Request: fold
Amino acid sequence: MPDAAPLWATVVLPVVLAVAAVVTAGFDSVLSGAAERGSAGSVREAGRRAVGPLREGLRLLVQQPRRTTAADRLLGRLGVVLVPVAAVLAGAVLPWGFGAVSDPSVGVVWFNAMEALAWAAVWLAGWGPNSALSLIGGYRFLAQGLAYELPHMFAITTAALGAESLRVGEVVAAQDGVWFVVWMPVAFVVYLLSALAMAFWGPFEYPLGRDAAGGVAAELAGVDRLVFLGGRWLLLVVTAGFSVPLFLGGGNGPLLPGWAWTLLKTAAVLALLVAGRRALPVLRMERYMELAWMVLVPLTLLQALFVAVVVLNR
Amino acid sequence: MDHMGHDMHSMGEVAGLPMAERDDDRDALRLDRLHVPIGPGLSDWPVGLILRLTLQGDVLQGVEVDHLPVPSGPRLPYWDEPWLLAAQGEEVTRGRAARRRCAAHLDSAGRLLAVAGWDDGAARCRRLRDELLSGASRQTIDGELRRTVQRIGRSRALRWSIAGLGVLPAGRGRAAGVTGPALAADGDAYDRLMMWLGEIERGLAELDEGRLLTSDELTGPRGRLDGPRPPSQALLDVLPELLTGAEFACARIIVASLDPDIEELALAPASGAAHA
Reply:
C-alpha cells in the first residue's frame, strides 16, 4: 500500500485538478475548432483555440450574474458550488502514484458517495432559478442517474471485488501483475460510459441539452456559470482519473515513476473520451435507459459473477 | 385564467407569475399543467417561430403554433430566391439553384444535429454551408462534403436517438399540403434527415451546371413554391398534430426535422406562379 501523501498534497490537489481540467477543455476546444472552422493550419492558431476555454472563463468572471423572478437563490447557489466541491472531494481518494490525499478503508464507497452529491448539486442548480427549462434539465439528470448508476455501481464493485478491498490503494496493489482491464473489460467500458454520465458531459450532456436551451445551465451567467461548468470539467477529470486506479493498474508500470504513469494513463483516458465524444450525439435518457437496464445491468452482473468465481478459486 | 373553470379556487400568483393549474392528463391523472412558450429567439430554432406549449410533466398536452409578424417587402425569402427569380424571368443557372438547395439542407441538418446534441456534426454542416454560399467550387468541397454526409448517414447512435420521432406518413402529409423532402421522406425525423442528405449529394453533381433554370421549376428546398400556400405554412400546420403527446425532449427534434422557414411565409400565394 502506498504511503499517505504529505499535507501539502491537500492544498495542491484542487490546483492540479483545475490545471488538468483547463488542459482537457483546451484539447476539446481544439477539436471543436477543427469541426467549426477547419483545421488550424498553424501552431499559433491551434494555441489560440486551445486557450479559448480560459478566455471564456475570464469573460464569465466579469459578466453580470443573471437574476430570475422568485428564484431560490440559496439552494441554486448551493447546487452550483457543490459541483466542484464534489469533484475535489472525490479527487481526494485518487492515488497519484505515491499516495492519495487520503486513502480510507472505504475509498471506493467515498468516491461513489461524492457522485451522489453531484446528483443533488445538479438538481438543486436546476431548481434554483425558477425556470421551466432549467428544472427540466435538473430532472433529466435524475433520470440519467437512474439509467447509469446501477451499471456504474456494479462496475466499481467488480474492481473492488477483484482486489477484495474497498481501499483504493489496495485495488492498485492488486494490479501489480495483471491490470483489471484485462479480465474485467466490460466493467471498464461501462465505467467509462458512466464516468461521462456522472460528469454530465459529452454524450451524456442531456441535463444541459441544447434542446432545453442549456437545461440546468440555461439561466446561469457570470461566476455561477463559470463555477458550474468549470466544476463539470473537474468532475470529468476526476471520474476519468479514477478509472486508472480501478482498472488500469494505477501507478504501476515499467521505468517511469508512479506519478508519471498515473499522469500518462489519465491523459490517455481523457483524450479517448474527448475524441470519442466527437462521434456521438447526446443520448436521450428515454432511449439510454433501455440499453442500461436491459443490456448493461445484465452484462455487468455477469462480469461481477465471473470475477467472483475467479477470486473464490484463487 | 378564470376561463379554465374547475379547480381554480386556490390558484393565485407568486411574484407576479401565475401558478400552474391542474387538469387531467392523458392517463386521467390530475397533474399540474404549465404554460411554457418557446421561441421566437432561441439557438438552433427556426427564427421567429413561437410554440405555446401546455406541459404536464414533460408531456406536451397542447401546442399552439404562432410566429412573429413576417416582414413583407421586395426581398424574396433567401432560401427560395433562385427559383422565385427564375419564375420572374431572370436568368438563373441550375448550378446556382443546386448550390442554394444544398446550403439550405446543410443549414437544416446543422440545426437538427445541434438539437440532437451532435455538436461536431452540426459544426461541420454549418461550415460546409458557409463554404458553399461563399462560392466554393465543386472540386474543393466535394470530398469533405461527401465524407460528412456519409459520416452522418452511418451514425447508428444518431439513428437510435431520433428514429421514430414525429412520424409523418405521406398520406397525412399530402392531406396537409406538405410537399418537398418532408413529404418524400414518408417517415420520421431520421428519414427526413436522410432525405436532406440524399438531396445534398445529388445537388453536388449539379453545382457547376451552367444550364438555366426554367420558370416552371418551382420546387425550393422545402417544397413546391407554386402551391396555394408556401411550403413552410404546411409544415407549421402539421406541427400541432406531431407534437401533441410527444415528450418535451422530442419536441425540438421534431420541429428541427421539419425546419419550417418563417421568412417563407411572406411569400404571397403563388407569387412566382403568377409570372410563370
User: Anything to note?
Assistant: The longest helix of chain A spans residues 132-163.
